[in-house]
Amino acid sequence: MTTSAAPNDTSWRFARATAPVVRRLAGRRAFPLWAVVHHRGRVTGRALAVPVTVVTTPAGFIINLPWGAGTNWVRNVVAAGGCTIRWKGADHRMADPVIVGEAAARPYYSRPAWAVARRLFPADAWLLLSRPDVTGE
Q1: How would you class 2 by CB atoms within 10 Å of its CB: exposed for 0-12, middle for 13-18, buried for 19 or more?
Q2: Element (H or E) spanning 39, and its range?
Q3: What CATH number has the domain bearing residue 19?
Q4: How far apart are CA 60 and CA 44, in angstroms?
Q5: How far apart are CA 127 and CA 69, in angstroms?
Q6: CA distances from 53 to 63, 135, 137 (A)
Q7: 130: which of 30, 60, 67, 114 fits an S-S bond (Cβ 3.0–4.6 Å)?
Q8: 34-40 and 90-100 strand pairing
Q9: What is the DSSP-derived secondary structure letter of residue 8?
Q10: pLDDT digit string (tens) for 55-76?
Q11: Which residues constitute the domain of residue 33?
Q12: Within a domain: residue 1?
């Protein structure tokens, strides 16, 4: 697993084309594919937010990382030991961030969702987040 990756043409174009709509709709009740990760900068301490695609898991969420695990927001979440995800209009406090590979991420996706995710946003890393009440904190 690499720590960073350059976007391929397909994922970069798709992200750029959908960015204006995603920024407005991510985290809202009627748009469950997208969520907003709220976190703090490691150095500045500033409150930051980034829209992401999420898949629910029994314990929380898994997030596809097409630009790698070395992106600043991922490093911020891992360093802080968690974040807050706004999904379907509600805030969900998440803990125990773990970077996982394809083999660990695949069981959380349906066959069609996996095919779409691999085609539009190929990745070598995923961020697995759990609710604190599930992780035992």
Answers
A1: exposed
A2: strand 34-40
A3: 2.30.110.10
A4: 27
A5: 8
A6: 6, 22, 26
A7: 60
A8: unpaired
A9: P
A10: 999 999 999 998 889 999 999 9
A11: 9-132
A12: no
- Domain annotation covers residue 101: yes
Distance CA 123, CA 108 (A): 15
Q: Which long-range contacts (CB under 8 A, 24 or more apart) does 100-106 make?
A: 100/62, 100/125, 100/126, 100/127, 100/128, 101/1, 101/125, 101/126, 102/126, 104/128, 105/62, 105/64
Is the predicted pLDDT of residue 20 greater than 90, yes or no?
Answer: no
- Its pTM stands at 0.80
4 domain-assigned? no
Pairing of β 126-130 and β 82-87: unpaired
Distance between CA 22 and CA 30 in Å, rounded? 12
